[in-house]
Amino acid sequence: MRSFFLACSQSTWMRERATRYPFVRRAVSKFMPGETADAALAAAQILQKVSIGTVFTYLGENIKDPAEAERVTTHYLDVLDRVRQMGLGTEVAVKLTQLGLDLGIELCYQNLRRIIAHAGAGSTVWIDMEASSYVDATLDLYRRALAAFPNVGVCVQAYLHRTRHDVQGLIPLGGAIRLVKGAYQEPPEVAFPRKAEVDENYFALTQQLLSSEARSHGLRAALATHDVKLIKRISDWAQLQGLERTGFEFQMLYGIQRQEQLRLAREGWKSIVLIAYGSYWFPWYMRRLAERPANVLFVLRGLFAS
Ligand SMILES: Cc1cc2nc3c(=O)[nH]c(=O)nc-3n(C[C@H](O)[C@H](O)[C@H](O)COP(=O)(O)OP(=O)(O)OC[C@H]3O[C@@H](n4cnc5c(N)ncnc54)[C@H](O)[C@@H]3O)c2cc1C
Predict the structure, then answer these.
(1) Which CATH number does the domain housing residue 107 bear?
(2) Can you tell me which atom of ligand 1 is nearest the CA of 222?
(3) Among 65, 127, 183, 265, which residue's CB has the most CB atoms within a 10 Å radius?
(4) Residue 129 in domain
(5) Residue 225: inside a domain
(6) Alpha-carbon distance 54 to 126, whole Å?
(7) Does residue 245 belong to any structural domain of this protein?
(8) Does residue 28 contact residue 281 with C-beta atoms inside 8 Å?
(9) d(CA 72, CA 268)
């Protein structure tokens, strides 16, 4: 099932057809407040009232034209202005292939640099991690950006064998790291094939990111998962270590585990929700279906309700 949806996420043919069906669009709305920045801003205002922070991501990836990368960059600059005007603490998360990575490293870096500079020192720009073929380029651009700006973070994936080593090298740089399990189709030479191994590596990486060494370098650690068992294991361990509840953060996606997002915020943990929006949602949505087969039933229920 996971492989099927991850294959769909790459299919232009599927994207062009499936996105026309109202029942598919209705199902997607569970994970997106809407396709526009206005919808994302309205959702962020509501979450701010219950002490949940937000990160925006404008959906899109693997763009093929520099003009498109420019349009995306300008979109982020505008959204950051609107976030400021509305007094929201919202940060942004970007995909480097949407800023032109496939077209050239320098073009991509210049777009990334503009967004980071515009966000200002108090607002981290998070760089998503995409398929494993992009990890080296992504980490190189993160290191380069972090040498020039304090407000940049990168995502690392617990399913990759290499991540433990990558994190060890990144810790002395400080900066910000978001840990996820990983959402792409990867071969066993590159990624742990079994979920239990990924979960165990996630916990080991969390310990690395919250270690006294990492804290001494001022590393901001964001643990992005909806796995409530893992969240409990992490929060129990953090308390045993005497870590402050606000010393790191949990991040989740809009619409997933809402009760857990609220519970964490209520109990004084930092709870952040990533809000994705935009019209290019198909590959992103297929990755959400791959993560949880029960979501497919939700789509089908929508079909019969229509
Ligand atoms: C803030 C954030 C940023 C992310 N950025 C990236 C990135 O840059 N690169 C990348 O590769 N991946 C990214 N991901 C996705 C991540 O890699 C996982 O695919 C995703 O989070 C599912 O894994 P999980 O940790 O929630 O655990 P899982 O073990 O997959 O799920 C645990 C439980 O959470 C719930 N759940 C999980 N996913 C869903 C879903 N789609 N719908 C409904 N319930 C669900 C279910 O109850 C499930 O049993 C990001 C995730 C988050 C939360």
Answers:
(1) 3.20.20.220
(2) 1
(3) 127
(4) yes
(5) yes
(6) 12
(7) yes
(8) yes
(9) 35
Q: 182 CA distance to ligand 1 centroid (A)? A: 8
Q: How far is the CA of 106 from the centre of ligand 1 (A)?
A: 31
Q: Mean pLDDT, to the nearest integer, of 183-208?
A: 96
Q: Which residue of the set 17, 20, 82, 128 is catalytic?
A: 128
Residue 24 Cβ < 6 Å to ligand 1: no
pLDDT tens string 60-89: 878 889 999 999 999 999 999 999 999 999
User: Cα 135 to chain center, whole Å?
Assistant: 15
Ligand 1 within 6 A of CB of 59: no
| Domain count of the fold of the chain | 1
**C-beta 128 within 6 A of ligand 1:** yes
Q: What is the pLDDT of residues 236-268, one digit of tens each?
A: 999 999 999 999 999 999 999 999 999 999 999
The reported pTM is 0.93
Q: Is the CB–ligand 1 distance for residue 181 below 6 Å?
A: yes
Band of residue 7 on the pLDDT scale cut at 50, 70, 90: confident
Using the structure block, give the residue that is written with the tokens 């990983």: 182
Q: What is the pLDDT of residue 306?
A: 47
Range of the domain at 84: 33-280
Nearest to 182 by CA among 155, 204, 218, 162: 155
In a domain, 133, yes or no: yes
pLDDT at 31 (0 to 100): 86
How far is Cα 79 from Cα 276, in angstroms, rounded to an integer? 13
